[in-house]
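In the lab's daily routine, each protein ends up as an entry in a very long ledger. A line of letters takes care of the sequence, but it says nothing directly about the fold. The fold becomes a row of whole numbers, each drawn from a learned catalogue of backbone shapes. The protein below has been through that process, and both of its lines are reproduced in full:
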Amino acid sequence: MTDTRPFENTLPPPEGTPQSNLPVPPAGSGGPEQVVGRRIGAALIDLVVLMVLSFLVATLFGGASAGGGEVGFALTGGPALMLMAAIPAYYIILEGLRGQTVGKMLLGIRVVAADGTPAGWGAVVVRTLLRIVDGFFFYLVGLIVMLASPRKQRVGDMAAKTLVVRA
């Protein structure tokens, strides 16, 4: 029989830190320890979505070119600012409304608050803004932090007190 109670188990805090009140789901419940591969896949899907979005914006408002096996685009001024705003908006709007980006939807995972409730807009904004830190060295920082974290959180998740779990 599967235990369907809310997240009641907690991990002990790292040595020398005060007791944490952030619960984690029990093993086998689709908690953060089981979604690392899905998170990586979702990030790759989101990257493709954002590349397509970038190309569409560049085609409509900037200079896009394709030929000789190469595709490229150049944006300056307003269109470049629009694209720079669209990328974080993609994460904030989708995760704020549904807890899921396109990649997360396709791979069956979602962002939640650490207590298992839907993540609020403030938390989603914090975790999105900290993608800048997580994204250093092609997201290597975020990956290493996530793999080393007991709750499989990247820097943005830790600051926002969010988890990524199965939907």
About this structure: The CA atoms of residues 81 and 145 lie 30 Å apart.
